Predict the structure.
Amino acid sequence: MATLRQLEYLVTVVDTGSFTKAAELLHVTQPALSHQIRALERSVGGALLERLPRSVGLTPTGRAVLPHARAALLDAERLRSAARRVAGLDQGELELATVYSVSLGPLPAVLRSWRQHHPGVRIRLREYPHADRLQAAMAAGQGDLAVGPAPTDWDGPVRDLGVEEFVVVLPPGEGTAAPTVPLGELSERDWVHYAPGNGLAEVLDQACAAAGFRPRVAVRTEQTAAAPLLAAAGLGAALVPANVLPPDFDGLVLRPEPPVRRTLTAYTRTRPDRLTTAFAELLAREIRVLPAGRYLSEQPAEQPADRP
């Protein structure tokens, strides 16, 4: 039967592309590493690796086995982490999954507060460009708690955290005194868009479609933080979550009409353990989905709630 150590050896050889580099990384001799790989191959009934002139490749059997090896190692790490948490909230590791814009906007302040209260608990942050990829990662076990747009057809607990407001960013000094702008009035402008696969690209496309036009793309960016900077530099209008803008941002910031909003949630697969529950409670208490001051909508935000 395959052992976790053998699976770790296989994954490391594949990731490094070399028996020599894998042995150095694992702090074992190369003959010992080769012996364990051969034992694993006998266990599964076929060769897993083939030596190429300058690297190591996977056989068809190896390609079939590798995803299961990675999953087994991930499950083992989660088991060890769960065991450490039994002692309380003073140590352990929390795997937190989220989307790019949330890790940039409302999440850092929450993580700072968590760190102050639980300095011995490590946070492993996993970031995804789209809510669908976030949900898929959570379903695959790659996170204890997800923070992002509401999931679809989710069986576990879901807690609403509040409603994000999106704002339009234009270059400074354009001269408008109104705090809002009808989105349709921007139909002839160039836009700072997001890379395909980024969830904010869909938010922008849907908002513009509702206003009766398709945004004319001047530039696309993969980084949420870059969009308002590019807009302020004059490359085009941008639609961004208000909570990602720094307090001293010097671009022109307007609320779109009609408003563009998105509900943020926290969710887990099953009944969360003590550590995950503690973080979820602090998150719900301290997260600021709407920034204070000039970017707030006149319409009150929805109140956070728990959903089964």
Summary: The longest helix spans residues 60-85. Residues 179 and 254 are 5 Å apart (CA to CA). Residues 296-308 have pLDDT under 50 and may be disordered. The first strand starts at residue 49 and ends at 51.
